[in-house]
Design a protein that fits this description.
Blueprint: H1 8-20, E1 25-29, H2 37-44, E2 52-58, H3 65-79, E3 83-88, H4 93-96, H5 105-121, E4 131-132, E5 137-138, E6 155-158, H6 162-171, E7 174-175, H7 185-198, E8 207-216, H8 221-235, H9 241-245, H10 255-262, H11 266-271, E9 282-284, H12 286-298, E10 303-310, H13 314-325
Parallel strand pairs: 1-2, 2-3, 3-6, 6-7, 7-8, 8-9, 8-10
Antiparallel strand pairs: 4-5
Length: 331
C-alpha cells in the first residue's frame, strides 16, 4: 500500500526532520489498525526540542477518559510541555469494524473532554468529585495520582458533520477538521465558529487546525501526484457529502473504489481515482501548493496540518515545505 507501509522508525525520523525545519506541530492520525500513535508520540518527544506533538482522532469509544488523561499528562512530562491531544472521530465506520456502535458521539466526546480537564486541573486532591453522566460514571476515587507538568495542556476535538464540528468550537482549545478538499474549509470553519458563538467564546481563542493531504516533489511532480492516489482511494469513501460537493464530487462517486478497498484490492482502487478526485489533496509545484494553502488561510483555518503522502521523497518534501512554503505564512 505504499505510503501506509512507512515504518515506525521512519515516522520518527520524519518527525525529527519536521522539528529541524521549524514545523510548529507534529500530528499523528490515530486510525484504526494503523500504527499506534500513543507509542509514536512518546518515542518522538525525546528526539525533538521545539515541535508540539499530538494525536488526531484518538477515539472516545476505544479509550476511556482516564487513559486519555494519564497519557496526556505523561507525554506532557516527557516533552516538557509540548503535548497536545486530539480526540474525537472523523468517521464512525472504522470503529464499527470492531463491533463498536457510536450511538452518541456528541455526548461521549463532551463528557470525555470534561473528565480529562477535571482530572488534570483538580490535582492535587485526595479524592475527586463523583461524576454521573450519560456515558461515564466515576467515583470519588477517580483522581490523578501524580502531579501533571501542566494542568491545562491543549485539547483539540476532531470532528465531522455540522453538530460535531459545532461541539469542537464550543469545548475545544482547538478543532481538527479534515479539509479534504481544501475548498471545504469554509463549511468546516463556519460550523466550528457557530459552536463558539453559542457559548459566547471569542473565535480567536480557537485554533482551527485543518488537516489536508499534500504530495509535493520539485524533481518529479507526476510521481507526487501518483503518490496521492492511494491515500484518496483509502480515505475518500469516508468523507462527508458537504465537503466533497465543494469540488463537484459525491459519496456515490466512490462506490466502486470503496468496493475494491473492502476487498483489500488497494492497487485496483488506486487506479480508479480520477483527476477530479485529486482535488481532494494539495499537489503540484511549490507555488501551486502555496497558493492553495493561502486560500485555506483566507477561509479562516488558523493552522494547516499537512499530512501524507507528503511526496515520493519525504525528507525532501519536508525540506521543501519547511524552507519554501512555511516562510510564506510566517509573520
Amino acid at each position: 500500500m505504499g505510503w501506509f507501509d512507512i515504518s515506525a522508525a521512519q515516522q520518527l525520523e520524519f518527525g525529527r526532520l519536521a522539528d529541524k525545519y521549524r514545523f510548529d506541530y507534529c500530528w499523528f492520525p490515530h486510525d484504526t489498525f494503523m500504527r499506534n500513535t500513543w507509542v509514536l508520540t512518546s518515542a518522538l518527544a525525546p528526539l525533538t526540542s521545539n515541535i508540539k506533538i499530538g494525536t488526531v482522532g484518538s477515539s472516545p469509544y476505544t479509550f476511556d477518559p482516564s487513559e486519555f488523561a494519564t497519557y496526556l499528562a505523561t507525554l506532557d512530562e516527557i516533552s516538557r510541555g509540548r503535548a497536545v491531544l486530539g480526540i474525537g472521530l472523523h468517521t464512525t465506520d472504522m470503529i464499527g469494524w470492531v463491533g463498536i456502535e457510536a450511538k452518541n458521539p456528541i455526548v461521549r466526546t463532551r463528557e470525555t473532554v470534561h473528565l480529562i480537564r477535571e482530572t488534570l486541573r483538580t490535582f492535587p486532591k485526595g479524592r475527586a468529585k463523583p461524576f454521573d453522566g450519560e456515558e461515564f460514571h466515576w467515583s470519588e476515587q477517580a483522581y490523578l495520582r501524580f502531579k501533571p507538568f501542566r494542568q491545562n495542556p491543549p485539547i483539540y476535538v476532531a470532528a465531522f458533520g455540522k453538530e460535531y464540528l459545532e461541539l469542537s468550537g464550543e469545548i475545544g482549545d482547538g478543532s481538527l477538521p479534515m479539509i479534504t478538499p481544501p475548498e471545504s474549509s469554509s463549511y468546516m470553519v463556519n460550523s466550528i465558529l457557530e459552536g463558539a458563538k453559542k457559548v459566547h467564546r471569542d473565535p480567536k481563542d480557537i485554533d482551527i487546525a485543518g488537516f489536508a493531504w499534500i504530495s509535493i516533489s520539485k524533481e518529479d511532480p507526476r510521481k507526487a501526484i501518483d503518490m496521492l492516489k492511494p491515500v484518496i482511494a483509502y480515505f475518500g469513501p469516508y468523507l462527508e457529502e458537504e465537503a466533497l460537493s465543494t469540488v463537484g464530487l459525491s459519496v456515490s462517486d466512490f462506490k466502486e473504489i470503496r468496493r475494491e478497498i473492502d476487498r483489500g484490492r488497494y492497487d485496483v482502487a488506486k487506479e480508479l481515482v480520477t483527476d477530479q478526485m485529486l482535488q481532494l489533496g494539495i499537489t503540484g509545484s511549490v507555488s501551486e501548493c502555496t497558493e492553495r494553502i493561502a486560500i485555506v488561510e483566507k477561509m479562516g483555518v488558523t493552522q494547516i496540518s499537512l499530512g501524507g503522502p507528503l511526496g515520493p521523497d519525504i525528507p525532501s518534501a519536508l525540506k521543501t515545505i519547511g524552507e519554501e512554503i512555511i516562510p510564506a505564512f510566517k509573520t
